[in-house]
Amino acid sequence: MEKKFLYKHLIILFVFLFSLKLNAQIINGADLLFSENLNLISGKKIGVVCNHTSLLSDGTHLVDALLNQKNVSVKAIFTPEHGFKGSAEAGELIDYKKNLYKKVPIISLYGKDRKPSKENLKDIDVLIFDIQDVGARFYTYISTMYYVLESAGENNIPVIILDHPNPIGGNYVDGPVLDPNYKSFVGIAEIPITHGMTIGELAKYFIGEKIISTWKNVSLNVIQCKNWKREIPNQFYSNWNSPSPNINSLETALVYPGTCLIEGTNLSEGRGTQYPFLQFGAPFLKSDEVIAKLKLLKIDGIELNPVAFIPENIDGMATNPKFESKKCAGIKIKIIDPVKFEPVKFGVKLLFVLHKLYRNKIKFNDSFDKLAGSYELRNQIKNKIEPEEIFAGWQKELLKFNKKRNQYLLY
User: Fold this and answer.
1) Range 359-397 burial, b when 16+ CB lie within 10 A, else e
2) Which of 373, 347, 365, 49 is nearest to 184 (CA)?
3) Measuring CA to CA, which of 10, 50, 52, 310 is 20 to 30 A from 357?
4) DSSP secondary structure code for residue 231 in this structure
């Protein structure tokens, strides 16, 4: 009887402790820079690559926290796509000219230049990179990091990455690996659409695999997060900051690696509404017909509902969206189980169904191949190749990538 009683209470204790582990507050690299690693920047002249997501746990912006340090001098602020405040639209080129933040010059890395110049770095001892990524190859913050690392190597400047969790999960790796002939700012390296890595791990990968031309000269220090585990379900990721105007929720980030492919077509990806990437459509779609066909392809983890929407100009989110002021029939996604949902596969299944139903009305634009990473996916969709066969074609390159990737995982 006593053994049963003890066993029962041990199980309760285990469940309680596991629950505490899952709910432990995630501490990002920015907080740990100040609590445990100030020696790395003491007496240094700093360049900060950051935006509105560069926050400490108490809400203080990283630049403000650095300016409050007596023995640190902040010389420049470098910003990615969407700018310092994260409010510029996708693709909007930014030129800060002589803009300052508390007397510190702001330099755009999404204007006429995509990487820091030698002139930009002449008074800098160390570069700090602290930006929340989304976890998809075509999200340009990792391209900015790539060029920052390259420039750092060219100018012999050490780099500190203040790590963040990958918000869509640390184990989800999927999609075609980029064909190097399709390298662009929305596809900077030979990685799959979802790489399952943090920005710190990805930086180590870029250098370790010699993807960056100046890899020999890059001195990299990654300050890891605490209390983040790859296997923890996405719903436990609580310290989320929307990284850009159209990734305005964690749910949006979860579907983005799949529905972003719609941007490469004439369909609306939901820009011009409050639910970009979570809903999509066109005036010629029949929602129930598309949903019925998708359900035949066994899609787990989401609920699909018919929706009607009218894309409009939204300040800071969308200018001249597709089908502006026209009523679109479409589909809205609701995440039911983020662990079971596979967004990249969903994106392919969606395109397969849409092309099959509306072949003469679906058009691919020039950006599709850059997003997909090659011309092959477009051809497969047009040639009615079944999704499972498309997925099978990824596996060889994915296995190679995963074998290399495993060497750089920090968590």
Assistant:
1) eeebebeeebbbbbbbebbbebbeeebebeebbeebeeb
2) 373
3) 310
4) T
* pTM, two decimal places: 0.91
Q: What is the mean pLDDT of each run of 10 residues along the chain (411 residues)?
A: 46 40 79 97 98 96 97 97 89 83 95 94 97 96 98 98 94 97 97 98 98 97 94 62 92 97 98 98 98 96 98 93 97 95 98 96 96 97 98 97 98 96
Contacts of 366 (CB under 8 A, 6+ apart): none
Q: How far is CA 349 from CA 75, 125, 258, in A?
A: 48, 49, 9
Domain boundaries, the chain: 29-235, 246-374
Cα-based distances in Å from 325 to 277, 282, 284, 319:
18, 12, 15, 12
Q: What is the pLDDT of residues 282-341, one digit of tens each?
A: 999 999 999 999 999 999 999 999 999 999 999 989 999 999 999 999 999 999 999 899
DSSP 297-345: T---SEEEEEEEE----BTTTBSS-TTTTS-EEEEEEEES-TTT--HHH
Q: State the pLDDT at residue 88.
A: 84
Whole-angstrom Cα distance, residue 397 to residue 392?
Answer: 10
Q: Which pLDDT belongs to residue 93? A: 84
Residue for token pair 């190859």: 137
Domain 246-374 = CATH 3.90.1150.140: yes
* Residues 6+ positions from 220 with CB-CB distance below 8 Å: 149, 158, 159, 161, 203, 204, 207
Digit-coded pLDDT (tens) for 352-377: 999 999 999 999 998 999 999 999 99
For 6-11, which contacts have Cβ atoms below 8 Å and span 24 or more sequence positions? none
Q: If you search the block for the tokens 């640390």, which residue do you land on?
A: 170
Cα 116 to the center of its chain, rounded Å? 21
Of 12, 56, 54, the C-alpha closest to 34 is 56
DSSP state of 43: T
CA distance 316 to 37: 37
Structural Rg of the chain based on CA atoms: 22
What is the per-residue pLDDT for 98?
76
**Mapping DSSP to helix (H, G, I), strand (E, B) and coil, where does residue 37 land?**
coil
SS (H, E, C) 107-175: EECCCCCCCCCCCCCCCCCEEEEECCCCCECCCCHHHHHHHHHHHHHHCCCCEEEECCCCCCCCCCCEC
DSSP summary character for residue 257: H
